[in-house]
Amino acid sequence: MLGKGLGRACSGESAERLLDEAPDVLQLAVFATSTAAFRALADEGARFSVLVGHSLGEIAALVAGGALDVAEGAEILCHRIIALREHDSSGGGLLALGCAVERAQQILDLLPTSGAVIAVDNGPEQTVVSGPADALRRTSAIADAVGLSATVLRAPHPFHSPLLTAAAQELGRRLTGYGRRGLSVPVFSPILGRYYRDSDDLGQLLAAHLVTPVRFGAAVERLHRSGVGVWVEVGAGRALTSRVRAAHRAASVHTPLLADVDTLRETGRFLAPAATGPRIAPAVPTAEGPQATATAEGPNVTATAEGSGTVPTAEGAQATSADSPGRAAGADERPAAAQPREAIAARVRDLYATTLEYPEEVFEDHAELEADLGVDSVKRVELMSRLGLLFELGPRPEDLRVSDYRTFGQVVDFVVDSLARADAA
Q: Residue ranges of region Disordered (predicted)?
């Protein structure tokens, strides 16, 4: 599709040289690295509760989650590369500012007609701006004047910017009709701000990514509130886990492709359900889409797949727990059943709210699912099945009658009781 081979991607060429001489090959190398690393971790027994991609990395995350196979993911990426190659002549790029998104927006507000926009919110210490070259120079000058760092990123296109509207339209045309399989591991999108759903048109969503900002910092916060405490960079380096650590110093982060810190084998075994040491309460994704398959026996982790150059690749040394494969430094070490009811309720509420597309506040304990919220029996059976996957409750009891759980509070109590029984067993 691209008219070139991939031998250079496997020949030890540096990312910097590929970016200069063969950026298309580099994008495929990023994709291949993440998908191969995920498979290697899975072969060691690793179990993940949620996958998070960053920009281009969402394609790799969808492959890892089972929505696409490797060939389909590579084909979609090639279509993406071709659409950008043929429909972006802007000469624009990306600029990383050393500040939170609110401060970055204040700077851009001083340049209302420049065409520069927020492209990536990476958390409290970094925001990436996208736009024409002149707009980025002016943004950098203002940042320098107010004492903020400004780093030009070596990106081949002004990703997540209206400058790529034509490319996004072409990519949408190319990806029309792309089907998908059911996810075996849920995938959270920092671009969509939600989990992927069974009903999603993957082609159109992936095309829209080119012009839609990445809210990675917000995604980290949301998953953190859901209880995620272990993060694994399923890509080369520590670009994303450094952003996690910047926001949450106590987070347990793993960078298995930096062999001097972790290894794939050590990380995979640490994430396996049979890992020794204290169990870590499994944080559950707040799922709009297919549910998690994380087990109560293993640590709860979010795998992160690196994106397309929107994050500097050498920031922030990470503290890891490779010296203790069964234990995550700084992680919650309570047994799964010890989770307070309110934490379980929050996870159930998020699942119901996003699956049904209702506001979270309607899910109070006394809310009648059918009488008050109009949730029919078929949907309630589906939701109970998703809860079973989400909390690793095992096979549904033969005598379970969904009609016995009329209110939201009764559903939460069912999960609490089921986790308690599983822990006692």
A: 276-340
